[in-house]
Amino acid sequence: MSSEFDPRLSAAILAARSAQIASRTLKTGGGSTMPGVVARRVDPKVLTKLSQRLPMGSAAITGTNGKTTTTRMVSKILQTAGVRAVNNSTGANLVTGVTAALVSDSSVSGKPASEMGLFEVDEASVPKVAAEADLKLLAVLNLFRDQLDRYGELAYTGKVIASAFVDLPPDGTVVLNADDPLVASLGRSTAKAVYYGVDEPNLDTGRLQHVADSKDCPVCGTALDYETVYMGHVGLYGCGNCGFSRPELQYRASRVRFDGARGTEFLLSTPKGEAEVRIEIPGLYNVYNALAAAAVAGESGVALGEIVRGLGEFGGAFGRVERVKAGDREAFLLLIKNPVGFNEILRTFVTGADARNVLIAINDNDADGRDVSWLWDVDFEMLADAKSEGRTNGLPPFMVSGIRADDMAVRLKYAELPVGSVVPDRKKAIREALAATPPGETLYVLPTYTAMLEIRQTLSELGYTHPFWEDK
Amino acid sequence: MKLTIHHLYADMMNLYGDRGNVISIKKRCEWRSIPVEVVDVGLGERIQPTSRDIFLFGGGQDREQALLAEDLSGSKGADLRAVVEDGGVVLGVCGGYQLMGHSYETPEGERLPGVGIFDLTTEPRKPDEERLIGNVLVRVRAPETDEVREIVGFENHGGRTYLGDTEPLGEVVAGYGNNGQDGTEGARHLNAYGTYLHGSLLPKNPWLTDQLILNALRRVDDSFELEPLDDAVERVAFDSLADRLR
User: Which domain holds residue B87?
Assistant: First the structure.
């Protein structure tokens, strides 16, 4: 842990500072990775040097779904516990983004202001970040099929992540989701694994969704037996052939109670005791995020009371779940990344008959995934079933938008669900959808990533929100 | 006169929204009051043809391809071949298409035997080659009507497929197709169709769905006709993508 003057390091930090100022001035989008690129060019060891100067070391969070939300939950917990942590919270999650966060946190002499690093890391970037950033902890949330065109196959992604475990110190920790078989299987290659999961038989969906990605045993390839399926391939499982099964939990959520769109309560059990937790964001997937955050914080030495308090004060991450007051109406933005997330949103908001005004916006830019075939893996049929079984008070027609609005309309037609107006233009669609929402009611907006940015931009132009780099 | 959709390896080969193909056939039958049933055929289970069948064989990941190749190497593969020679309808997409050829070589260099419905082989992507990914527009000549039609879809494959003595399904207008080089896409032999297009294929191309249904039902009643459906929504979706690709 050296803190002596290092001229090359200082030069790198200075170069990054000017790059950051230039990028902000040119408004090239928050300036969140450019300083990292520049700093690494001047001193390729900048990330290693700075992270070794963090007294509490660093933790990284990876996985397909929930990285940003979980990272921000941990961040809130650390803040509550009085730990100064630096993080890359604006979604810059490659090694350059991690570098940029640490550089901007450090003085020109190379002394970080923070005590701990907390980074969300893209799955494919885990080995590089682990090799350079002196991680004490690595958490793997889940592995779902998401933008397969970027990473190839899930088992391969698992291998890539697991290859980084050896870079953690002997007293390091790997936090794993026990309910995701592929993620849980990664723990077999390390003695550092700590597991979290949900024990709540009432949440059994009773069926493996069509989108289930790894229903076969990740160890021997035999079909897994599921006792409970919570979502996608996540649940309580065992292999009849090789005996691989859901590992024993160190962090557990039970007695999970949903309070509609308002929040969720559950009993959190940890190695240091149990406590009731309430989070102000909805859905089972956020229970998993909160559990992961509790495990990361708990294994970093934070007391249970601080964890409960931090989770309770957490308000939701940018764009993933966001409420925007739009005059005398409300817009509720729920980012859609893949079929599992989409199913959860449908289950939480639409089947519950909460949502009367719905806008779905599907783009197919690179950041959304260019392939929209996943729309066919979304279980819209569950809505049609709920309707025919009288479990909803009639479904509203969904308004559809986005570059692939027409494909979305076809999908709804084949689920025999009512299609409202089809307005491919996102700006026009959000204006029309708000106008069609009765005063006092909520408009549920379900956009893919770039559609969300466009809709947010329009809401901002209408005076309803702020550009994201101001978001805290 | 019930139509049976045999969904091969439904629990494993579910990548890329292949479920949309099942939904498309099912709904387009139901909307015409044609009774339809979906039967999942898993590993170790034999196929049980009725006389009005559509076999759907979707795409999977490499590890699964090896399991399937083994499962198909015995009587199940022979049964499927016999169904095709007897005029039965089979649609293979991506991984399923590859396994309908003579052989499929994995990126690890393992050569998996195929069912041999099509005279084709599939080679893995070489280290200096890219995966073939993107939207595709294909021109198809349907022997049934001798009309030239188009299909759109999305392809995402590392393997390069080379046809021997088998007709391609169509010619590539935009995208890569079988191998990115010879301009062919897919394969067709009697009523067996193979293609790299998912996305899902059939909902985007309702005329092809209807052709499969017609192929299947005409095996028993060669004068069978389908009632036309209102495809306005599908047509708009097709045109908006096809126009981008032309």
Answer: 3-245
Q: How confident is the model at residue A431 (pLDDT cuts 50, 70, 90)?
A: very high
For an interface test with B, which of A373, A374, A388, A417 has the most B Cβ atoms less than 10 Å from its Cβ?
A: A373
Confidence of residue A1 (pLDDT cuts 50, 70, 90): very low
Mean pLDDT of A209-226: 77
A256, A288 contact by CB (below 8 A): no
- Taking the CA of residue B100 and the nearest CA in chain A, the distance in Å comes to 22
Q: How many contacts does A have with B, using Cβ atoms within 8 A?
A: 92
Q: Give the chain B residue nearest A381 (alpha carbons).
A: B23
Chain B contact set for A371 (CB, 8 A): 16, 133, 154, 156, 198-199
Q: Which of A152, A373, A419 sits opposite B17 (nearest CB)?
A: A373
| CATH code (residue B119) | 3.40.50.880
Q: Best residue in A157, A220, A371, A383 to probe B by mutation, most B CBs within 10 Å?
A: A371
pLDDT tens for residues A50-107? 999 999 999 999 998 888 889 989 999 999 999 999 988 556 888 999 999 999 899 9
The answer to whether A446 and A359 have CB atoms below 8 angstroms apart is: yes
Tell the residue number behind the tokens 């550092």, with chain if given.
A192
Minimal C-alpha gap between B86 and chain A (Å): 31
> Nearest-CA distance from A384 to chain B in Å?
13
Comparing CB atoms, the residue among B16, B67, B199 nearest residue A221 is: B67
Residue A240 CB partners (closer than 8 Å, separation 6+): A222, A225
Domains of chain A plus CATH, in order, are: 7-313 (3.40.1190.10), 321-461 (3.90.190.20)
Give the pLDDT band of residue A337 (cuts 50, 70, 90).
confident
- Residue of chain A minimizing CA distance to B244: A403
Assembly ipTM:
0.94
Number of domains in chain B: 1
- What percentage of chain B exceeds 70 in pLDDT? 96
The model's confidence at residue A169, banded by pLDDT at 50, 70 and 90, is: very high
Judge: A424–B198 Cβ closer than 8 Å, yes or no.
no
